[in-house]
Backbone:
């Protein structure tokens, strides 16, 4: 039924301006703003060709799960660059992270590190096998 649909994902933020700056300038993604007043929204263009819809919500609650995963060729270099850009890596007690905040293991990705956007939504950078 939806096999040919150009589906997209979306999430809320509490400050559209901070989100535009973070996703556009800090992460270097293509971000387009549209709408006016209370109907403003962002479209984030991902390297895969997919788009993500971002909308403001007054009573926004950050996602407690990872909403976007960014695969990279070199997890260490990606984390170093994020930190240089002012991003803080998150650490979760159930995962054993190294000094950089990267969780490495024999199963799953070579490494994964989590961080949040200004609205508190969880994102990750990961290096696949």
Residues:
């Amino acid at each position: 039924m939806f096999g040919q649909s150009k589906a997209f994902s979306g999430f809320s933020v509490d400050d559209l301006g901070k989100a535009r700056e973070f996703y556009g300038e800090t992460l270097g993604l293509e971000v387009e703003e549209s709408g006016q007043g209370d109907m403003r929204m962002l479209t984030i263009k991902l390297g895969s060709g997919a788009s993500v819809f971002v909308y403001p919500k007054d009573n926004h609650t950050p996602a407690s799960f990872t909403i976007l995963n960014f695969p990279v060729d070199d997890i260490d270099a990606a984390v170093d660059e994020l930190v240089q850009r002012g991003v803080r890596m998150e650490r979760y007690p159930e995962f054993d992270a190294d000094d950089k905040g990267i969780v490495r293991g024999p199963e799953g990705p070579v490494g994964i590190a989590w961080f949040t956007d200004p609205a508190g939504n969880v994102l990750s950078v990961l290096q696949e096998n």
Q: What stands out?
A: The mean pLDDT is 93.
